[in-house]
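Question (not urgent): is this output format expected?
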Amino acid sequence: MISRALDALVAALATIAAVIGLTTLTENTSWLGRAIWICLAVAAAGLVMRHLTSVRLLVLLGQLVVTTWVLVVMFAADRLWFGLPGPDAWERIGQLVTECVAVMQRYAAPIPATEGVQLVFVAGVAALAVLVDFLAVTEEAPGVAGLPLLAAFLTAAANGGSSLSPWYFVIGAVMWLVLVARQGRGRVQRWSTTVASLRTPTSEVEVENQVMWGYGNVARQLGVAAIIAAVVIPAIVPHLPTRYILDGLGRGDSSVGRGGRVGLNSIVDLTRSLQSGDDNIALTYRTSAPSSTPLRVFVSSTYVGGVWPARSVNAPTQQLTQARVIASQIPVADRQLQVESNYVSSPHIASVSPVVSVDFGGQSWYADAATGDLYSNDRPASYSVTYREVDVTSELLQAGIPGATSGRGDPEVQASTTVEAAIAAQLDELTDRVTAGTSSPYAAATAIQKWLRSAGGFSYNLQLPQSVRDENGQEISEPILRFLKSKVGYCAQFASTMVMMARAKGIPARLAIGYLPGRQDDGLFTVRNSDVHAWPELYFAGAGWLRFEPTPAVRTGTAPAYTVPAVVPAPSATTAHQTDSGATASATSTARDPGAPEVLGPTAVQASSFGDQVRDWFRDPWHVLLLAVLLGLLGSLVLPLTAYLANRRRRSRAATPGELAEAQWDELVSRLGDLGVPPPNGGGTLREWRKHYVREADLDNHAEEVMGHVVATLERSRYARPGSAPTELADDIRTVTRSAATNRPWSQRIQAFFVPQDGVRWWTRSMNRIADAPSRWIDVLFDRFPRRG
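Got this back:
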C-alpha cells in the first residue's frame, strides 16, 4: 500500500513538472496552485480506487468522476446542488469555457489568466494527470506515460512567443526518470531468479542490495546522459538547409514565420498569418494617446479575383497631406507613436493614419501621396510618427459636417466607389434590405456594421467551410458571396463585405490591412504576427477616411465610438423632472456597441424558477446529448457496482472465518471465470484447483505464490479448529485477478469489467423474484382460507 502511494505521488509530481512550462503561456501563474491540488486529488482517487477494486477501467472511471467533481467545486462552488454539479454549475462551466475561447482568439501568448483560461488550463492538467496515473501506476507502464508528459512540454514550447528554457525540459525529464526507476526497481525485485553467491560469506539480502544498486546505477547514468544529450546536442548541431516543404511550402522571406518577421504584401499574407498562429513579435511601441488604435500597414481600393492586392506607389512623396481633408470645425489632437522595435518586413511601415510627421533617424522613407501609407526600402529598427486623432461624433456624422467638400474629385475616393460587377446585383438587393429605413450615408454605414457585427447571425472562425452551395445546389466560388451564404469567416471576409456593401450605397470605402493594438504591459504595447487584422475605411466629407469595425467583438473588442449611433430614449415622467442631485437628466444616453457583450445591471436580471431553468437546459440538443451520454455511462456501471456490493454484502454476512474464506474464494472463482478462466472440469482438491488456475490463467510468479496463500487459507478454514481468527483475502484476490487480466485480450477484460457474472446473477435472481411475486402472494392468500377435508 505504501509503495503504491509513493508511485501515485511520483506520477503526480511528474505531471506537475511537465506542465510548469505551460505557465509561460499566461500572464501569471495563478492557475498553477489549483492544478497542483487537482493532481494530488487524482493521485488520491486512484489510490483509493485501486484499493477497492482490481478492475482497471473502474479505477479510471472513478478518477474521472472525482476529478470532474473537484474541478466543478474549484470553479463553480457557489452553484452546486446539494454538493453535486447541477444545471447552474454546468452553465457556469460552459460560460467559462466560452470566455477562454474568446480570450485565446483575441490574444497571443502569454494570454490573460482569466477565470475561464484558468478553468481550461486546470482541466487540461487534470486530464493529463489522470492519463499519466492510469498508464504509470494502474497499468504499470511508466515508460508509455512519458508520451503525454512530453506532449505537455511540446504544447508549451510550440505556443509560446519565444523559445522555452531548457530547465522546463530537464525538470520534467528527471521526474519521468524517477517514475520509471521506481517501478523498474520493483519489477526487478519480483524476478524469480537465483542470486549468485560471493566467495566471502555474505547474507542474501546484502547480495541482492548490491545487485539492485548496480542495476540502478547503470540506469541513472544512462538517464542523466540522455537528458544532457537532449539539451546540448540541438544547441551545437547546425540547422539543416532550407527545404521547400519543411519551411512553409516555398514561401519567401517576406512571408510569415521566418526569423520573427512578417510581410503583409496582400490579404493572402494576412490569411496565412492568422491561420499559422505565428506569435513572433511584429513590433513594440508606446503611444501618447489615451487609448490604443489599430496600426495600418497599407490600404487597397481594388478588389481583383477575391483578393485585395497591395497598391503600386505611383507618386512617392514625403509630403504628408492626408490630414488636410479634415474640416476645421472638427476637434483634433496630434498623438505620437514611438516604435521601439520593428520586425515588419520592408518596404511597409506600420502607422496610424493620417500621419502628419515622421522621424526615421535619418533613414530614407517615402509615402503614397494618395493614401498616406509609409514605406522604407530598409527596415528601420525603430522610428516614431505623429498622427492626427479625429474627435468626430456620431451626431455630427449623422447630420453632416457643414461646409465640407464631398471629395469626389479625389482619384482615391473615386476608385473606392466601384462595386465588383459579378456580385453587384446581389449586393444591391441585400444592402437595400439591411439599410432599409436609414436616412443618411452614416446611418446606412452603421446599419451595415451592426448587421455584420452582431445582428446578422455571423460568427468569427479562422476555418472556412470547404463547400458552400446556393439554393440550386451549385458551388459558390466568389468569396464575398460564399461568406454571405455560410455566415462564417474572419476579419478579411467581414471587412471585404462591408466595403462592397458600403459602395453599393454610394459610400466610398476601401480595405485597410494592419495589426490590432496588441497587449499592453507597463505602457509598452507588444504586437505579434497573430494580431494581423483587416478593417474597412469609409470616407465622409469633412472627416476623411474613418475606420469601421464589422468583425465581431470576440476578435476586435469594442468598435470605434463614432460608429455606434447614440440612443435617444423617449421622454418619461421620471426623465422630465430633475434628478435627485438637482441636475436635469440628459436626453441622450451613452451609445453601446451592439457587437460587444452586454452587461446587465441588477434591475435587468430576472429571476427564473428552477423548473424554468431545467426546461431551458433541456431545450439545447447538446445538453440532451450530454445527459444521454452520462446516463449511458452510469448504466454501464450498474452491473460492476452490483457485483461489488453483492460480494461485499456476502463477506459482511459471514458469521465464521470459514464462511468468510468461502465467500472470498467464490468471489475469486467468479472473477477468474469473467476473465475466461473457468473452474476445472470434474472438481478436485483445492491444490488441484490451484494448479489449474496457475496454468490456465498463466499467472506470474508473485501471483502464483499469492494463489498458494489463498488455497492454504481456505484449507485451514475448512479443517482447522473452530474459533480461529478470520483472514482478509481482498488484496490477494486483487493480485491474482490482475495477473490473470494481463494475459487476457482487451475484449475479454472489458467484458469482465462491464458484465461481471456476480452482477448478472444478482439481477437475474431479483427479476425472478419479482416475476414470481404475484404467484407467491396468491398462494399466501389461498393458504389463509380453510380447506375442506
